Amino acid sequence: MRKMAGVAVMIGAALASGCNSDNDTVATKPATQPTNVIFFLGDGMGLNTLTAARIYGVGEEGDLTIDTLPETAFIKTFSHDAQVTDSAPSMAAYMTGVKSNNGVISMDSDATYESDCSKSAGKPVTTLLELAKADGRGTGIVTTTRVTHATPAATYAHICNRDLEADIAAQLVPGGNGYNSALKEGLDVVLGGGSNFFLPKADKGKREDGRNLISEMRAKGYQFASNLDELNQADASKPLLGLFGASHMKYELDRPASEPSLAQMTLAAIKQLKGKEKGYFLMVEGGRIDHALHDTNAKRALQDTLAFDNAIK
Question: What is the pTM assigned to this prediction?
Answer without folding.
Answer: 0.91
